[in-house]
Amino acid sequence: VGVRLVPALAEEGSREVLRQLRVDWPSGSGSLALPDAVSALKRALGQSPCAAACEQGLGTAALPEDVICKVHLRSFIEQQGLVGYDPNLDILLVTEGKLRALAELQQAVLQCVVSNPVALPASRFPDAGGQGSCCSIVHVVSCEEEFQQQQLDLLWRMLDPGAHTALQKHLVCGPVKMTNPSSPMGADQYFQLRKRQMYEASVMKYGDLAQDEAWTEVIDTLTVAAIRFEMLSTAHRSQITLDLEDSSISTKGTKSGAFVMYNCARLATLFDTYQQAVERGTYPPLPPASELNFSCLREEASAEKGNAGTCGEWLLLFNYLLPFPEVLQQAAQLPAPTKGIRIMANTETVCKFLIQLSMDFSSYYSRVHILGEPFPHLFDQMFSRLRLLGAVRDVFHSALATLHLPPLSQI
């Protein structure tokens, strides 16, 4: 999401948008250790066999004043046996700016919190130079800047040949376009537009909204969800075309992140209602799953969906609960244990899974009355349905967590 939205992360407004989107974008800027890191890189540059002074003689085009030296990237690639880099990479003019950018990357890596600092087996990463590492670097970069980021990758390998630089990978994102733009739009304007649209759509659905902290948090969360799904539902390497018209976003559009959050909130409301009824003595507490007879789950899916003859309740189990681990496995394997530098993060797999789950759950929930009359002979079916939907809720929460989205408890 960050690289899709922000062409220049140094801009203060762009960083504010990332904060509002809850994107933790690492940066070493402002660190007191940065000048020392740049000096260390300069010393390493002076000792590198791939570095050479830039001659400024007759017939030579004038070089920028901040050029320190040149390095031969092509020969370095060949010496190291690296694969997957742009074949046009050759001579790189090293400047103060490039060294500062490299120092910021180093500082960001040093600030990373490693939950389990145990070296990974080298056999899992055949291109890791025979060394294990507990830190992997993924360069998330726009397609326009891929060439420059590969230069920085190679310069880092050249000047800091530690184990962690051997696990550098590149995730390349396609461009973001707008339909019929009347004027250029920045990330902050885009965020505020979506927030206004989400507020207006919520007013249309729920009526006048109280201007209190609870509603502000709900609108903010719905806005973040809408933007994340809008950005991440398309394969990262493909172009996104944004439709900025008011009709393009709603609280219940079936392709919207807000629709997913709405159904997640419906589940939370269901279980809150049940718990309140238990506390009043209307229903008994939910028994363990091992004590239930799930054969009473027989609710058929709607015929108009093309699912006549199949059980809607079992559809939730076989189409969503059981395949969910496989969906996660398909979504991201970082870093990829293969040769080359490019990796894939199939966020669209999780987004489409959640949207389809929301559609089928919404159809089921609108058709079936879960909390029935408090008669003992109906409890078995109610308990079984609650256990099934409890598992559906867990899948919602887990899948949303992979997109760094908190589940809404109410709307």
TrEMBL record:
<dbReference type="InterPro" id="IPR008909">
    <property type="entry name" value="DALR_anticod-bd"/>
</dbReference>
<dbReference type="GO" id="GO:0006420">
    <property type="term" value="P:arginyl-tRNA aminoacylation"/>
</dbReference>
<dbReference type="GO" id="GO:0106217">
    <property type="term" value="P:tRNA C3-cytosine methylation"/>
</dbReference>
<dbReference type="InterPro" id="IPR009080">
    <property type="entry name" value="tRNAsynth_Ia_anticodon-bd"/>
</dbReference>
<dbReference type="Pfam" id="PF05746">
    <property type="entry name" value="DALR_1"/>
</dbReference>
<dbReference type="GO" id="GO:0005524">
    <property type="term" value="F:ATP binding"/>
</dbReference>
<protein>
    <submittedName>
        <fullName>DALD3 protein</fullName>
    </submittedName>
</protein>
<feature type="domain" description="DALR anticodon binding">
    <location>
        <begin position="260"/>
        <end position="411"/>
    </location>
</feature>
<dbReference type="InterPro" id="IPR037380">
    <property type="entry name" value="DALRD3"/>
</dbReference>
<dbReference type="InterPro" id="IPR014729">
    <property type="entry name" value="Rossmann-like_a/b/a_fold"/>
</dbReference>
<dbReference type="GO" id="GO:0004814">
    <property type="term" value="F:arginine-tRNA ligase activity"/>
</dbReference>
<dbReference type="GO" id="GO:0000049">
    <property type="term" value="F:tRNA binding"/>
</dbReference>
